[in-house]
């Protein structure tokens, strides 16, 4: 990345429906084997690892970042492959921004997704996104994206480059407040997560 006193050039980004972003400066992948403890049904998770292998791609992120610090943006695409573990749909690990007041935009490019969001006080929301739809996640909401369709869920995201990501807050809470599960037909619903014990930092 450039020195702090240098002026960045503008970037051109092209966003393909498969999540490939022309102009990306970085990328990372999460594999099925990276997601131990994320899903409620551990037996189903172990079966999935046994069937598909720990190296199976779960989701992929491409990012474009020009500058660091307050005021800069991280722009990227997230591609979550479809599937279920037990009754739960495939999803990202989820996080709260370390600078918790940092908001984030998610815009659905392809597929059918749900943005699952909690406050540390225990308020919980699930908002569906299909192509052309977006969710504005305010600061102070824990968030993860869930693929409730049968094709890859591709979203464009944009958030402050100084936000940081605290993944551990969800693990410490036993998962998020709600699970996004099959409704037994073609759709999704939410159900309380019996393992959720409340978020650290919540008022007693
Ligand atoms: Fe985020």
Keywords for this structure?
204 residues; mainly beta; Jelly Rolls; 6-stranded antiparallel beta sheet; 3-stranded antiparallel beta sheet; 2 helices; 8% helix; binds fe (ii) ion
What layout of secondary structure does this protein have?
Layout lengths: L13 E2 L5 E2 L3 E6 L10 H11 L4 E9 L7 E8 L3 E2 L2 E2 L14 E7 L2 E7 L4 E6 L4 E4 L3 E7 L5 E8 L7 H5 L5 E5 L5 E5 L12
Antiparallel strand pairs: 1-2, 3-4, 4-5, 5-13, 6-7, 8-11, 8-13, 9-10, 9-12, 14-15
Structure description:
The protein has 204 residues and is mainly beta. The protein has a single domain (23-192), classed as Jelly Rolls (Sandwich), CATH 2.60.120. It is 8% helix and 39% strand. It has helices spanning 42-52, 168-172, and strands spanning 14-15, 21-22, 26-31, 57-65, 73-80, 84-85, 88-89, 104-110, 113-119, 124-129, 134-137, 141-147, 153-160, 178-182, 188-192. The strands form five sheets. Strands 3-4-5-13-8-11 form a six-stranded antiparallel sheet, with no helix packed on it. A hairpin with a 5-residue loop joins β14 (178-182) and β15. The longest helix is centred in the N-terminal third of the chain and has 11 residues, at 42-52. The radius of gyration is 17 Å and the shape is globular. The termini are far apart. Bound molecules: fe (ii) ion. Residues 95, 97, 104, 143, 159 line the site of fe (ii) ion. Fe (ii) ion binds next to loops.
